[in-house]
Amino acid sequence: MSFADLFIIVANSTLFFTVPLLITALGGMFAEKSGVVNISLEGTMVFGSFFSVLFINFMQNTFPDFDPSIMLLIAALIAAITGSLLSTLLAFSAVNLKANQVIGGTAINLFAAPMVIFIARTLNNVKNIPFDQTFNIQKVPLLGDIPIIGDVLFQDINILSFVGYVIALVAIFVIYRTRFGLRLSAVGEHPGAADSVGINVYQTRWVGTLISGALAGIGGLVFVVSSSVTFSGQVSGYGFLALAVMIFGQWKPEKILFASLFFGFMNALSIKYTLIPVFDGLSLGYFFTVLPYLATLGALILTSKKSRAPKAEGIPYDKGSR
Amino acid sequence: MKNQAFLSSVVAIILGLLFGLLIMIIANPFTAIPGFFTMIGGWLMNPEFLRRFGDLIFLTGPLILTGLSVGFAFKTGLFNIGATGQYTMGMFAGVWIGIYGDILGPLQWVVAFIAAMVAGGIWGLIPGLLKAKFNVHEVISSIMLNYIGMYTVNMWIQGDANLFNIAFSKTKAIDLNAYIPTTFLREVFTRSAIDLGIVLAIGFSILIYFILYKTGFGFELQTVGNNRYAAKYSGIKEDQSLILSMVIAGALAGAAGALYFLAKGSINSGNQYSVGNELLTAGFDGIAVALLGQSHPFGIVLSAFFISFIQRGGYFMQTLGIKVEIIDVIIAAIIYTSAMAMLVKDTLLKYFKRGGKK
């Protein structure tokens, strides 16, 4: 196998894992920037992927000729809506009732998977919802012909990958260049100060949390669609991994992009490393599987003394305490 | 105050059960009512009462210990979401001694149990150290350690032909001497899974109660939990108590792993650990138990019993065609409401006080 072929295989596989992590980690960032810890990303991914895959399953059975890419985009919209619906539970308990956010998030995690599996099994007796893997675009015209880059980015890829890149660009723009983004950061850093200049802290936190839920929902759909041909009631810990990506990316969208690439790369290596001549014959699957978690611990050790985490993260805002 | 805490848990339970009932009615209005009554106690009213009750008691034991693990950490201001990893580590150490420790003879189960506590304690030590020395939030580091622990244990098991049963992808059966003794209990509760584990679990809850409320050390831990900086100011070595409390929490979760897997019986999936890439749910059940029990050692015993009770109810409810996942939904709803219960109660109290003044 030539080096170019090897590169394409590993790069493809990297993007495969990167996109769902990227979208979900950005989701986590929107909540945490506003000061709400969202530990329920995992559950939200399961929740969003369930309803969107249910939709895909229905459409494929009823309208087999429907354009798969458009179907996937509608499914992403459904995932976003259901994901943010689930996040209203977090927003309500964290913002309005000022409850412990980690406990609220844990409850949502515990709730999401059993709830959707209950629905799936009540409808169909099994928890799995199968779908046909017809979403991959063989080759994007023109762009797909570029050597190597075309192979990696524009061949055999589903439309949600592009949605992922667009979300990343939009997130960078929103956080640094819009009024809303700056307000979001202000509310997460110093809600009292933000409040004193007329920013509605509660409202901003609600919006941040709902965006978070929407993105996690989409992330869940991307994960299921690109890694499987069936919804099976779980997302393999990717929600928690996304939380690690967000911290590794220091709550900054552009760094989160690189962090998710790193995690995606490690994941790809853990599966494809035997193809690489240097590693052939060694059993390193365990090493590459665990490395992202160890790297996160390492990053936490290096950065936590002066953490870049939003200062008011996890602390409910009480107008009276200003 | 204690009555109020108890009351708010009861309110959370009632709200959670009603929510579950509502969903069951939506799913199937005909089986919902009989299913609900099966769940909340009908399953026990059965000619097999003694066996089912014995199983219930057996399953309560590990829940008490994971609940104590999370609850003890709560009392000292830490959120031990890593109980799952500590439990898995404890399970591994226990099973390892249970298979390799033949020479220990009748002491094999004791050593296995202690090894499980040590392994869990080490897995709790890491986030404690990271928090004390580097200010790393224990929730995030514990989540990472849950996965690291699971993959590590899986690798160790899969790499050892004496431990791993490839055909079933499970650990092999442990030696007879490694089982926790059943003494006379199984003669009373015939054919059930009951053993002395429950006695150990309740013993630990008394011990934790004693540590927390009757010793200076426990008082220090709680002071650190209430306000880390005030504790430091008053001369408490806060780093040290932080680390110690994570070690104790980890050891308790490790003990839970031993309690579940060092038992003779068919109920705990043949007490063999299935190697898979999903975290065990035991530690998360512990969070539920601790929250519902308001982190009080005796409250935890009650809430572990309750959660075990409806989990078993859910199991028997399946004969009516109701899917068992509803139980986890109910438990999640109970946690969600109990996280808010204190606040709702405070708001109500404020409201009434204000009303009283006017």
Question: Which pair of chains has the greatest number of interface residues, and how are they split between the two chains?
Answer: A-B, 42 and 43 residues
Alpha-carbon Rg of chain B, integer: 21 Å
What is the N-to-C succession of helices and strands of chain B?
HHHHHHEEHHHHHHHH
Number of strands of chain B: 2
What is the name of the CATH architecture of chain B? Orthogonal Bundle
Number of E-type strands of chain A: 4
Poorly predicted runs of 5 or more residues of chain A:
none
Order of helices and strands of chain A: HHHHEEHEHHHHEHHH
**Assembly state (oligomeric):** heterodimer
By secondary-structure content and strand pairing, the structural class of chain A works out as: mainly alpha
CATH first level of chain B: Mainly Alpha
Please, what is the average pLDDT of chain B?
89
Please give the order of strands in the largest beta sheet of chain B. Answer: 1-2
How many domains of chain A? The number is 1
Number of domains of chain B: 1
Helix content of chain B: over 70%
